[in-house]
Fold this sequence. Notes:
Helix content: 25-40%
Shape: elongated
Mean pLDDT: 92
Amino acid sequence: MSKKRALVSVSKKEGLVPFVQGLVEQGIEVISTGGTKKALEEAGVPVIGISEVTGFPEILDGRVKTLHPNIHGGLLAMREKAEHLEALETHSIDPIDFVVVNLYPFAETIAKENATFEDAIENIDIGGPSMLRSAAKNHNHVTVVVDPTDYEHVLAELKENGSVNGDTRRRLAAKVFRHTAAYDAMIGSYLTEAVGEEYPESLTLTYERSQSLRYGENPHQKAAFYKSAQGDKSSIANATQLHGKELSYNNIGDANAALEIVKEFSEPAAVAVKHMNPCGVGTGEKIEQAFNRAYEADSVSIFGGIIALNREVDAVTAEKMSTIFLEVIIAPSFTEEAKAILTKKKNIRLLQLAIETTEKAVNKVTSVQGGLLVQEEDKPEVDETSWTVPTKRQPTEDEWTALNLGWKVVKHVKSNAIVLTNGEMTVGVGAGQMNRVGAAGIAIEQAGERANGSALASDAFFPMGDTVEAAGKAGVKAIIQPGGSIRDEESIQKADEYGIAMVFTGTRHFKH
């Protein structure tokens, strides 16, 4: 048998040269291809070209170079089987003991704004996954490394023991199959979208672990946070944390909810969230004014809450936020003065990310026992020209403003949902109730005197007139709801009885 050999072919070159130099120092011959071979030769590392092993040149612009029996025979031979070793000797094939491969940058390619379909296709790796899978299948005899973060550990074991132990080889093999599965999933997703297939016969999703979490919703639950390799930039997964301890499971869920609501607004807006529901939403000419209104909307529930703002946080706003116990503040940026004020609080988390309001709807995935529910996000184009007013009284200009604010917020409140607004802020939120009049009762009670003259938004139609009657008695002046109940006329009559202007949108916003 010849000395041990390693096949090295990587697109990610970080840490490559010292690792391969370490292999050579352990008496391992190195086979390499293309740009990897060039990088190693320039560093003075002795390298055998792939064509010297296969006896065949690279062809088709490099599309075919490692797909050869001299490579895969050397990878797949089971060293404990005499007939395998005889086959290697008969065909003059040397075993390959190490494979160090990572793949063409498909994800990075399709993430580029100017990437073409042809660019994507050319960055689908064929030989790389084949070598990785062959080596991983035969991990009893072959050490396979796909992740540069494993270089140090592999080299340390080689130096200490002269070999890589079986547990490590198996762990690395498992990582390979996760890696190639994720790679193929990205390609499948890209091509599925390219051909316009919305809900294919099988669905393979891939996510990368962003962080391990101390626990889940409760301390006895283990948890981790994974992000999509192709996720949008304006997401919690891609936020930059400027200050504070690591986010918890509940922080991440609440932060995502706050972010989704604040994206509804183009004017300065601030959103406070507790337990996945907004407790206060405010708008204004400046972000300070918007935050003040979000705070005034529910100064009790905001304690320990998550705040999202769609404008830079300035010193004045930061001073006001610093007087309250807040878990997380999310904003597109913070002035240096604002950061200096807020970072005095050790535990508060500051997250910075671009907050885009024009993202296209993507699929929302929810796990259930034994399966997944997949649906398009609730981001319909709002066509106010299709809204109708079935009541005798039309909304005033101020009431229209209040109704629009309520309609933006209520879609993000757990159903059954009722939101009361005054055009500048929410004044009452009723969330997650088993009946609609119950949700209205909570919102009205929270609003107190502010319910008088407010506008009410409902995520779904009224099955009877009781909610309208409760609103009328509280002094609500305008209502926005989908309409469509067989008892709509009862609600319309109640609205007319109390002089309420009511708008039908024709769109429901259930959120379970």
